[in-house]
Amino acid sequence: MNLTDKESPDTSEHGPLRLQVYLAHAGVASRRACEGLISSGRVSVNGQVVTVLGTRVLPIDDIRLDGVALQIETQFHYLALNKPPMYICSSSDPQGRSLAKDLLPMPRERLYNVGRLDYRSSGLIIFTNDGDFAAKVSHPSAKIKKEYLVEATGPIPDTMIAEFQKGLEIEGVFYRSTEIERLGRKSIRVVLIEGKNREIRRVFSHFHLHPSKLHRIRIGPVVLGSLGAGESRALTEEEKEILLQRRA
Description:
By secondary structure, the protein is of the alpha+beta class. The protein has helices spanning 19-25, 31-39, 131-138, 158-166, 199-206, 237-245, and strands at residues 6-7, 17-18, 43-45, 48-49, 56-57, 63-65, 68-69, 75-76, 78-83, 112-114, 122-128, 146-152, 168-170, 173-175, 179-184, 187-192, 211-219, 222-223, 232-234. Strands 9, 10, 11, 12, 15, 16, 17, 18 and 19 form a 9-stranded mixed sheet that branches. A 4-stranded antiparallel sheet has the order 4-3-6-7, with no helix packed on it. A two-stranded antiparallel sheet has the order 1-8. Strand 17 and strand 18 form a beta hairpin. It starts with 5 loop residues before the first strand and ends with a helix. The relative contact order is 0.16.
């Protein structure tokens, strides 16, 4: 598989970059995640720890994360992975749990997930080392639809389906599905746009239910299709274009 999709811009011709932007272009994580790395004191510039967000740096500066020198990526990669359950979407895990990124072909150490699936959930997740792409796709204003198949431990009441479709407030947070369809007595298909943290699990818990299976099958134009558990593929040019330029 050829993982190379495009070349990154020649940043040597540009002026100073914000530190979190530099880190994202170096394939560390999304810009938001990079802000957390800076604030926690894990990033240094020319030998000095920097914790101020928005600090301007140049490509010629010595920029390090946890003491490891970083360089802006020269090639960008975009992959779709079918994450099995019991894999965590993180660059590392102090509990030693399996990492979803370790299922990817090389250069997996430079790729990070766009959005998340929790430890017990499975299905489609996108990995990249393109910080701009990750920021645009993960921003709520992109309004990218995400589709899930959910099976419950008990019968799903009609009231839950009706309220999730209409919208309901749980502990001060409003949840609403864009589409919802009953597939069986204990199973539904759900489409979300906002993708709030653990949204489906919180709604199920509100109705005293527990998802026995939560499987994402689509992110905008990217469909899981026949991709097997643990398998990955490169995004197509059309998929990337739609994710970046249109509501999907």
